[in-house]
Amino acid sequence: MDYDKQKVASLPTIRRLPAYLTVLRQIDTADKETVSSSYIADKLKLEPIQVRKDIAVTGCEGRTKVGYLVTDLIDAIERYLGWDSNKQAVLVGVGHLGSALLGYPGFMKYGLQIVAAFDASPKVVGSIVHDQKVLPMDDMPETVQQLDIIMGVLTVPAEFAQSVADKLISSGISAIWNFSPVTLEVPEGVVVQNEDLSSGLAVLSVRSSRTRKW
Predict the structure, then answer these.
(1) How far is it, in rounded angstroms, from Cα 175 to Cα 27?
(2) Strand partners, 91
(3) What's the rounded Cα separation, in Å, for the pair 61 and 52?
(4) Are 41 and 22 within 8 A, CB to CB?
(5) How are strands ordered across the β-sheet holding 191-194?
(6) Is 76 left (phi over 0), alpha (psi -120 to 50) or beta?
(7) Angle subtended at Cα 109 by Cα 141 and Cα 30, rounded to the nearest 5 degrees
(8) This prediction's pTM
(9) What is the mean pLDDT of residues 100-121?
(10) Predicted confidence band at 211 (pLDDT cuts at 50, 70, 90)?
């Protein structure tokens, strides 16, 4: 595996790589040490050539008629995605969604650890949610700077999203995972990934309506 051969990937490729990892992690390496692009493509309803192009960006190279070593390919994708090392984040907005994210153990597989949670509600501040003490918003700047955190998870109502994002950024956050239903305005150099649940539901609704009536 040659990490010097890593390439810049398109967003569609980056979005597909985690699906490849899911397939690879389901393989019992005691019985199957190698995997072909055709096998991955069949599992995910993709074309083998697309899978090979996507894998190529990670620097992992397969062998003709043999395929890729499963363990090497897992390592290559995890390293490319930055999931081979831990990243700390803070979460703002400990409502139903925020609480659920705090309690999700799967983040550790992706190298993400939420180390602090904040909320503006006096009813929530001071409570313990999934072993995490909810802190007041005023503590955010000092916490972010002391722990040298650059990532924030935003799960506040839409009307508060921009002001909270501004506070995250002024505290030193440069990457925001936004679950709030609003488009954020951020300065250059700040990365925002929006998770719009309504978009996913729209796709599901349209696709299901074509196969059967509600």
Answers:
(1) 33
(2) 117, 153
(3) 9
(4) no
(5) 128-129, 132-136, 112-119, 87-92, 151-154, 175-178, 191-194
(6) alpha
(7) 165
(8) 0.84
(9) 94
(10) low
